[in-house]
Amino acid sequence: MNLRGPIVEVGDVRSVSTKYGERDCCTIEVRPDRGAGDPVSVTLWGKWTHTAEHAESGMELLVTDAEEDEYRGETTYSTTGDSSVVLEPDFLVDVTGIRSWVQCPRMYYLNKLSGVPLNYPVVKGTIVHEVFGDLLRGVDLEESIADRVEGAGLELGILGYEASEVEDEVRRNAAAIDGWLAQGTLSGEDAWRSERTLISPTYGLKGRADALRRGMPVELKTGKNTSREPRFHDKIQAACYGLMLADRGDRPDTGTLLYTKNTALDRSEATGDLSPAKEFSIGEGLLAFVVRTRNELAAMEWHALNGTGDQPGIPTGYEADATCEYCFEQDTCMVVSGRLDQESKAGSIGTALPAEEREYVDRLYRAIEEERRETHAEYRKLWEQTAAERAADDRALVDLEPASRTELDGGRWRLAARKPDDAVSKLREGDVALVSDGDPVGGDAELGRIRELGDRVVVETDEPVECRRLDVYPSEISVDRMLVAVHDAILKGDERRKDVLFGRREPAFSGPEREYVPNNDAQNEAVNLATTAEDLALIHGPPGTGKTHTIARTIRALVADGNRVLLAAFTNRAVDNALEALREQGLVGSAGEDAIVRVGTETGVRGDMRDLRLIRRGDPNDRAGELGSASVVAATTAACGSRVMREQEFDVALVDEASQLTEPSTLAAISLADRFVLVGDHEQLPPVVRAENDLQRSLFERLVEEYPDASVMLDRQYRMSQRIQAFASAEFYDGALRPATPEVATRSVRDLLADPDELPPALREDVAFVDPDGRRDGNRNVREAERVAEIVDAYLEAGVDPDDIGVIAPFRAQVAEIGRRTDVTVDTVDRFQGSSEEVIVVSFVASGDLDGPIFEDHRRVNVALTRAKRGLVLVGDEEALSSEPFYERMLAWADR
Ligand SMILES: Nc1ncnc2c1ncn2[C@@H]1O[C@H](COP(=O)(O)OP(=O)(O)OP(=O)(O)O)[C@@H](O)[C@H]1O
């Protein structure tokens, strides 16, 4: 049986005489059933006492195949020969993490903190891996090499490499694999599968194996190894995949390491064993070692969040017997130790950062690690929730019916399936999702990119999985990049910048005032603030106040002054909107001084901006030249953390939607530039994070409060009628928000109608409230949904264009409920931010009383109410809404 629960107490390791001789053991008390049961004792025997030494009360413990005993009337448990002991199984360790931990625990920490920079070995390694995958899929060697090197054109160009020299080197690496593969295929017995995404709920592991050969893991290493045995940490990596396969019931007994620089297939050369493939047996002892190693790592991560003492959860290097003199990370290790005043086996150099900066790094490190835990909780739902629950949660499309599979060039696959009519989810075209045969963890599953998402679903994968289910695949990339951003900004960051960020120096401004926007004082001041900033400028833009217009004007002014500008935003949509405005204002983006480059994926970049999209494939010099010479580079803030973008330098970074970004995500963009301009509105949507901690507050909001003189609020809005904007202006902007022109102020729903009398009397007002007397059931309210659909129909019948109407509801369930009844756009607030419609209908769902927040916070209501230009209808339960002062004021305004 399996025993699992939080640890109550850990006993001492002791030695006892048994019929097998002297054996070590340790007794641990846990509360089974995840803490619900009464404490029981479990005794860990033999090598598992190593894990006991890392265990602490509060950690979660899992013992598989435990044996139950009766001892003095009490039920106790102990490990058996088949048992595994797992600490913190919910903490999903990546296999690459285990690999670096085995080399040195501090290397694991340093990799996490500073990320992998753009360097030639990494890019070449990726190409060799891709070629390997291609060979397995039957692609010709030369064709694959040419194609993959071309695909990496941009990276290679930035690093200063020519295609031909890289091709030669990749060829040298790939020739041995090719030969070895040819040998294998001769026997006709090889059943290969390239790239395998694996998750192990039992052992808390995840990762992607390079390949499986007859079900056994094969790992590729772009290096040389002339000893008979694979390198220890390489072996551990392959064994991790073995363990994950074992968790699925496919226990492999052999692993293979392929060293690509070993050139001979012959095993007995005098120079050493030059065979590229080295096999090793995956015995029980090795698997148990992997589990114990993972336990050490998970325990350290637990301490990082829960531990006490000086620097809990930060490895020093003394944990391992690694020799620092031979370590290629020694310098980095010493610098980080010096700057953060950490103990480390390698020693330290340099002076420590000021205390407030170290405190900041510690605080954000912890907050980011908390967010990582929340991401792991998302993974857990893959196996804890049933397919129906995942679908109801909008995290999966289930019950797909496979329709066709087509092999594409390069051995990839296009899989099509039919989708049940009303199935909805968070998945969007362009997303990477987990495609599976119906069981994403235990069954056949692979990552694939969604190409089409209508009645028909089309995905592209490396392997031909039976496409019966698509799941949202949680990613740790944004968490990883946040850590790196903190590292880059604080450990490597510019001192002057840090003085401002830490309140040691006021932001400075210099240069002449100019007239940029003649018809709008606040916008004009904003552009001046941005162009004269020596450190930073903050532009606060309430709804419809011309943020995008101002951004474009600012960028034009900056470029005209000779600056290289990074334009970043939280969403692709905002990036493309700003580019559109830039083009409208005459910055066209052709080659030369005004060149604009848009960094993004094909599906991410809007159709009309594709001509600006940076192409990565091609001649290295051309590709790098295109990016390097552009005066404006536009990308999402997520993309700013990529290896390529981290190599770029700018004079000014202008970040839109900055109030929706966590502080570290903002740092990722602004660290690339000397000066920065943040544009946002902290009275609208806050950063989207799962953990409740410091990440919820944006750098924009913090700086607006700290440096009011460095900020300006755009106060004239070009969207809403006076009547509609009144509530938001009073509640969120101290009454300072006003219509920009009389035309805007006097807008009315009547403008849209040939004959206003065609509307029912209740809807003739520009702001209306309707109580349909509905009843909330979970996150939906059917009566209210019906009423919303009737209201939409009334507008349509009166002649309003369907494209001019939008419906907003607080919950996805209600969005689906309404969506079934109408064809106009229905969505949650988050999807509406940044857009507007002539008529907006808001469904509040709540009835009776307000037992939870309707919209998570009032800022979301602000967004909902400020999407409408001419007509706004609030649909909700009067009794419920009037039970909270904020909504009561809203009703009073609507009923006026
Ligand atoms: N100074 C100006 N003079 C004339 N029209 C303007 C000016 N500034 C903005 N506008 C117009 O106002 C409208 C809204 O501007 P914009 O799209 O820049 O707003 P925004 O603040 O980015 O909106 P959102 O709140 O959706 O982000 C646009 O049609 C734009 O052309």
UniProtKB/TrEMBL annotation:
Boundaries of every DNA replication factor Dna2 N-terminal domain copy: 40-183
Identification of the protein by name: DNA helicase
Gene3D superfamilies, A to Z: 2.40.30.270, 3.90.320.10, Nucleic acid-binding proteins, P-loop containing nucleotide triphosphate hydrolases
Entry's family note: Belongs to the DNA2/NAM7 helicase family.
Cofactor dependency: [4Fe-4S] cluster
All copies of domain DNA2/NAM7 helicase-like C-terminal, residue ranges: 695-878
Nucleus in keyword set: no
InterPro entries: Coronavir_polyprotein_1ab (IPR050534), DNA2/NAM7-like_C (IPR041679), DNA2/NAM7_AAA_11 (IPR041677), DNA_replication_fac_Dna2_N (IPR014808), NA-bd_OB-fold (IPR012340), P-loop_NTPase (IPR027417), PDDEXK-like_dom_sf (IPR011604), SF1_C_Upf1 (IPR047187)
Pfam family for this entry, one: AAA_11
Top-rank taxon: Archaea
Segments forming domain DNA2/NAM7 helicase helicase: 520-608, 627-690
Reaction(s) catalysed (UniProt annotation): ATP + H2O = ADP + phosphate + H(+)
Assigned EC number: 3.6.4.12
Keywords of the record: 4Fe-4S, ATP-binding, DNA damage, DNA repair, DNA replication, DNA-binding, Helicase, Hydrolase, Iron, Iron-sulfur, Metal-binding, Multifunctional enzyme, Nuclease, Nucleotide-binding
MF annotations from Gene Ontology: 4 iron, 4 sulfur cluster binding; ATP binding; DNA binding; DNA helicase activity; hydrolase activity; metal ion binding; nuclease activity
UniProt-listed SUPFAM superfamilies: Nucleic acid-binding proteins, P-loop containing nucleoside triphosphate hydrolases
Protein's GO biological process: DNA repair; DNA replication
